[in-house]
Amino acid sequence: MSGPQSAIDIPALYAGRRARLAQLMQRGVAVVPTAPEQARNRDSHYPFRYDSYFYHLTGFPEPEAVLVQVAGDHPKSLLFCRERDPEREVWDGFRFGPEQARVRFGFDECHSSAELDALMPQLLADQPQLYCHLGGDDAWNRRVVGWIAAVRAQARSGVTAPAAIHDVRALLDEMRLVKDAHEQATMRRAAQISTDAHRRAMRATKPGRAEYEIEAELLHEFRRRGAQAPAYTPIVAGGANACVLHYVQNDAVLKAGDLLLIDAGCEVDGYAADLTRTFPVSGKFSPEQRDVYQMVLAAQAAALAMVRSGAPWNAPHDAAVRVVAQGLLDFRLCQGSVEQVIEAGDYKKFFMHRTGHWLGLDVHDAGDYKRDGQWREFKPGMVLTVEPGCYIRAGAGIPERFANIGIRIEDDVLVTASGHEVLTQAAPKTVDDIEALMRG
Ligand code: GLY
Ligand code: MN
Ligand code: MN
What we know:
Blueprint: H1 10-25, E1 29-33, E2 39-41, E3 44-45, H2 52-58, E4 66-70, E5 76-81, H3 86-92, H4 97-105, E6 109-112, H5 116-124, E7 129-132, H6 138-152, E8 164-167, H7 169-177, H8 181-204, H9 211-224, E9 229-230, E10 235-238, E11 259-263, E12 266-268, E13 271-272, E14 276-280, H10 287-305, H11 315-330, H12 338-344, E15 370-371, E16 374-375, E17 383-386, E18 389-392, E19 405-408, E20 411-416, E21 419-422, H13 431-439
Parallel strand pairs: 1-7, 5-6, 7-8
Antiparallel strand pairs: 1-4, 2-3, 4-5, 9-12, 10-11, 11-14, 12-13, 15-16, 17-20, 18-19, 20-21
Helix pairs in contact: 5-6, 8-9, 10-11, 11-12
Bound molecules: glycine (GLY) and manganese (II) ion (MN) (2 copies).
Glycine binds next to loops.
């Protein structure tokens, strides 16, 4: 890793997060496994992606690994991971093995994954509570229940089993919600690569090209710059396809006069960017496209203005909805007053999703949106998307000139002490900037 991040003490960073978890638990043991490997077909697997909770606490990238965190007066962090295996490493590549993993990632102890079932009953003996991932996969649940049964089986020798089981994610969700300096730097990098990929895609777009050719430009820029993967399947949606919210076929040919909606972001060291731009295939907006686009851009500006420390989560959405409702009245796509359009939810026919979500290791990241029934307030270090849209499907009562216009404008926003920072600012979004880039 290069640049300012190279100065970061990686073992201390992750050990610090585990110490924080132990502090929040107060007593007991937490067990956090990484994700299972997934077969794609016969002997082929999907590229491995670690579990986000596990990774947040360990930084450890290999499959078949489990973190065990002991809290209390003598906290300790244990990693169970694959042993070194010269023969397997010929086929699958390097493994850290327990000894190197301990030093590199700052654990107190590391063991082979093969020892987990034997050691867990000892680690859980006389512990008051177990924090684990409840409701996960069945095989994992059975394993956890098996350890508890094994501790209970020793009851006559005076050992007690944990009396309470909690979902460890409730603690980790809060930890993940506020991003530290290392996370913010990583997310800036993911945002920067993603904005450059969108610029590249805009420059490559012209009538007659297929959506997948533009997708290839995005993927090329992501990988060329060292992003490990797209953070989610890119949406490259020309014309009416933009009105299908999760369109991922990306196989249509782009037509002059249509808009192209691209929702694509990369993942860097686990952290996602999530970025949408909408622009004309032939480089110039039609009057109606321009009007709807300016309305969505105004909705986004109104939403962004609400992102600051202390403001409630829903403020950006409410602000965006108000602008969209007024726009729909102006275009005569809704009737009545702004209040009526909002109250009755008539705007949802054209703007049916929310204005954003938390962003981080997961694209729709961890963290509650409400606390005790109230929208929670923004705090410095939180990262969210701001992404209003307007999707006008052809149909009864829709004037031809508006039919099949689908627009979303999405940015990634870091809450700061003084307001916010738009991490994806470098992707053009005013009409003039877009048209200028496409002319160039
Ligand atoms: N790309 C997924 C989303 O915008 O939420
Ligand atoms: Mn999003
Ligand atoms: Mn998106």
